[in-house]
Amino acid sequence: MDIDEARALDLSSPLAFARERFRLPDGVIYLDGNSLGALPKAAPQKLEETAERQWGEDLIASWNKHGWIDWPTRVAAKLAPIVGAKPNELLIADSTSICLFKLLATAAQARPGRKTILTQRRNFPTDLYVAQGLADLLGLHVKAVEPDKIQSALDEDTAVVTLTHVDYRSAAFYDMRAINEAAHAASALMLWDLSHSAGAIELDLDGTGCDLAVGCGYKYLNGGPGAPAFIFVAERLQDELANPLRGWMGHAEPFAFVDDYSPGEGIMKFLTGTPSILALAALEAGLNTFDGISMADLQAKSRKLSDLFVSEVEMRCGAEVRLASPRDPARRGSHVVIAHLEGYAVMQALVARGVIGDFRAPDLMRFGFCPLYNRFEEMVQAAKILADILGTGEWDQPRFHRRSKVT
Amino acid sequence: MDIDEARALDLSSPLAFARERFRLPDGVIYLDGNSLGALPKAAPQKLEETAERQWGEDLIASWNKHGWIDWPTRVAAKLAPIVGAKPNELLIADSTSICLFKLLATAAQARPGRKTILTQRRNFPTDLYVAQGLADLLGLHVKAVEPDKIQSALDEDTAVVTLTHVDYRSAAFYDMRAINEAAHAASALMLWDLSHSAGAIELDLDGTGCDLAVGCGYKYLNGGPGAPAFIFVAERLQDELANPLRGWMGHAEPFAFVDDYSPGEGIMKFLTGTPSILALAALEAGLNTFDGISMADLQAKSRKLSDLFVSEVEMRCGAEVRLASPRDPARRGSHVVIAHLEGYAVMQALVARGVIGDFRAPDLMRFGFCPLYNRFEEMVQAAKILADILGTGEWDQPRFHRRSKVT
């Protein structure tokens, strides 16, 4: 495809208008929104309003006057159409890792006698570490199997299954409904990590029978670096489940200051400590970038973007690169990985030319497509630059081989 | 004392200059820095810099370029002189409640076979709820006793003692060294909650033999609403203790993306998930308000402020009010509680007149003194306004009796 054809696609895209909601630096093709979403234009003003006028002027009274006390649920409600859940099933809280621990512990406690946490080998590392830490603490066992062995590994000892829905490397995703049904057939609870799904593809947590989920606020939800995470607990489970990470913000009457814990109603009991209001303010600006966006349109554009990128890369770069994601865009999330033996250095050379993706060992160059701001034109340009870097050997310079702290 | 004498004290105070580091609204006497510290003037610019220039311009590269990956330890190091600890013993992370859970679980795991978490009745509620939740999860027992019975309640079943150093109601505080020694004599670990201590009074965590501590970032440390908390783990314990809330940020090599957990060095293993960089930016501005401040000067001013307030209130208001904090300022933290049968309504009337304190059931009006920004002049003015409200019965209006969500 030539640039003009790509530009024509951009002009006719129903999501073209959404790019104006972001501030993106000139000369950059940002294909790493799956690691850190771009800055929503409204975020700095929202932070200023929260810091200067609310914190600065109204001080402690802001908890009532500006309703800070309700922000974890009020902001979470904006996620409901993005993930296909009811507003009262969602909460913003903590980090993804802490939320994973919280819901895994909740699930383990709800299945006394069962000793297995079932998960996938090469799951996102923190998901494995959290499960291992909880298992050591409670005398449980983490069983990690290949992705296609999850259903056959379920048994009467399985308390909870925890999986990342969209794989952070390959972008392959699980059939949510099938896994939920298999877990339920084994009387286990199912906990999804939606970090690479929420805001990237269409989800229907309620329609597919999800029990529990967590997700990341700083990737496709554009909530800013280290944004708080979200928790989903199906309404039908909220009465029976108890959060073992009790804290005053999850108490039925936090300001009664009584010695004994009584859980708050519904999703509220899953709050623990005092939430960062500044972080919530930025996350709200991130979620507002989805205002009026149809998730069906978003998913359609995501697939078209990644499909165009893959075909342009393959056409221009040939056999030197290899697609390491499912070829069918309907079988992957909103990123792709392209393998190259010198992927680290090639990615550094791309970054130096303004094409920002990231690298995952051993040889995976990862490119994320955010349908709210990425353009078809960028797909063609990025593929051209990649072909250029490979063709000229531009990547083979000492400065591109040096590893940085964060890759 | 008349206002002119109080102003003379302000002029001669070695901390007078520090008020300029804060933005405080006109017409307000803010005596609630123990609930939410005032806005540091540098905070909005720090947020803007972090959001617009770092997140907005440098995007994902900021983790390296702006050193975000090191912020939890870099910002924590600024706490070292404030709490009397080594920089490598401190970490910014999560919320106070989550940090309490993390360190309590760590401590319980380090004392296998021991089944008791010892604490105080009427401890700050979240401290009790966290302990109860962990005890239920692990099959432990929470023993809550009167403050003067802690040492005699220690026995060979005590895994960990958890206490709030400065009581959030009365401001009375424990003898840290004596409690640490008693806990150690029983081979138990000691976990302090410093939420009402850090930034309020002189602390010497290392000198008094502390094991573990957590504290709040949004009170005297001025880190903003719901600021992240801090964790202290004594260097001598860092090798032997393991954090059961494992996460990728506490891994020895977070970006190796391996399936098995290897704890990071020293304090690093107590990190779990990705920290909010925006919340850290605001907290850094809060900690910077302590630059060049001697904690001895700060404590001396705190005592003089509260002493002046108490004597002015007692002199002007007479028997209608009762001091419900220790009378000796050397035996209390940086706030006082004044009891009045209609304390809630009286506090609302005070707030309506611009004197901001808060209320704790059943009858306690709580006033906090932040030596960095509160002035002696404000002590006299606030006492005068309180006397006026009590003398005229101005507080006895329906609008002042209405309870709000957060009190």
Account of the protein in words:
The structure is a homodimer of 407-residue chains. Chain A has 407 residues and is an alpha/beta fold. The first copy, chain A, folds into two domains: 3-40 and 294-401, Aspartate Aminotransferase, domain 1, CATH 3.90.1150.10; 45-288, Aspartate Aminotransferase, domain 2, CATH 3.40.640.10. Helices cover 38% and strands 14% of the residues of chain A. The first copy, chain A, contains 15 helices and 15 strands. The longest helix of chain A has 23 residues, at 295-317. Chain A is globular, with a radius of gyration of 22 Å. The model of chain A has no long low-confidence stretch (mean pLDDT 97). At the A-B interface, helix 2, helix 3, helix 6, helix 7 and helix 11 of A face helix 2, helix 3, helix 6, helix 7 and helix 11 of B.
Quaternary state of this entry equals homodimer
User: Residue-averaged pLDDT of chain A, rounded?
Assistant: 97
Order of helices and strands of chain A: HEEEHHHHEHEHEHEHEEEHHHEEHEEEHH
In percent terms, what proportion of residues of chain A is strand?
Answer: 5-15%
In CATH, the architecture of the largest domain in chain A is 3-Layer(aba) Sandwich
Sheet with most strands: strand arrangement of chain A: 4-10-9-8-7-5-6
Task: Tell me the number of strands of chain A.
Answer: 15
Q: What is the CATH superfamily classification of the largest domain in chain A?
A: Type I PLP-dependent aspartate aminotransferase-like (Major domain)
The class by helix and strand makeup of chain A works out as alpha/beta
- Most extensive chain interface and residues per partner: A-B, 94 and 94 residues
Bulk shape of chain A: globular
User: Which regions of chain A contain 5 or more consecutive residues with pLDDT less than 50?
Assistant: none
Radius of gyration of chain A: 22 Å
CATH C-level name of the largest domain in chain A: Alpha Beta
Q: What proportion of the residues of chain A is helical, as a percent range?
A: 25-40%
- Could you tell me the CATH topology label of the largest domain in chain A: Aspartate Aminotransferase, domain 2
Largest sheet of chain A: 7 strands, mixed
| Tally of helical runs of chain A | 15
- Straight-line N-to-C gap of chain A: 31 Å
